[in-house]
Design goal:
The chain contains 7 helices and no strands. About 85% of the residues lie in helices and about 0% in strands. The protein is mainly alpha-helical. The longest helix has 27 residues. α2 packs parallel to α4 and α5 runs antiparallel to α6.
Length: about 170
């Protein structure tokens, strides 16, 4: 949402091409957030060799996808390589934990994943096809929707108001 502004503030306008990487990397990070914890199931189950092999595979795919897609698509290829890498790696890891450890997502977790992917895809599509001055309004709406969604989901788990009251009480002590 704020990438062009932050890049100008921290670096210079010469670095704005980095936004091209972010166009797909945004969605890749959502996929990574879903899959990355699953990889630790393998490690937690004591399967160190399997974990090492999967990480080696993921790193090798990352290098190959990045080199190939950068060569053909430039900076946007780097973001696309991230997305491809996490998608392929994610399918592999999910199949391993599902088949070896009988892992399945809970229904409410799948709902959160779907909502996150829809919001992330909407943001990625927006920055791909709409130039930045015009994209800000759509991205602002998507950002606010994401904040509201995150608040509602978090509040169902920890009762945020009660938690903040307890936190404030501890600070007063």
């Amino acid at each position: 949402f704020l990438a062009p502004i932050v890049i100008r503030l921290l670096y210079s306008k010469d670095f704005l091409d980095v936004v091209l990487i972010l166009k797909f990397a945004l969605l890749a990070i959502i996929v990574k957030a879903i899959i990355w914890p699953l990889a630790f199931i393998i490690l937690a189950k004591g399967e160190k060799k399997l974990y090492f092999k999967q990480e080696l595979l993921g790193d090798a795919m990352n290098i190959i996808f990045t080199i190939l897609l950068y060569e053909y698509l430039g900076l946007i290829g780097i973001g696309l390589a991230m997305l491809f890498n996490y998608a392929v790696y994610g399918v592999y890891v999910y199949n391993v934990v599902k088949n070896k450890f009988q892992f399945n997502f809970r229904k409410n977790t799948l709902g959160i994943i779907v909502k996150s992917i829809v919001l992330g895809s909407s943001a990625a599509i927006t920055v791909l096809f709409i130039d930045y001055p015009n994209a800000y309004w759509i991205l602002l709406i998507l950002c606010l929707m994401s904040i509201c969604f995150s608040y509602i989901e978090l509040n169902t788990r920890i009762n945020i108001k009660e938690y903040l009251l307890k936190f404030r009480h501890k600070l007063k002590k």
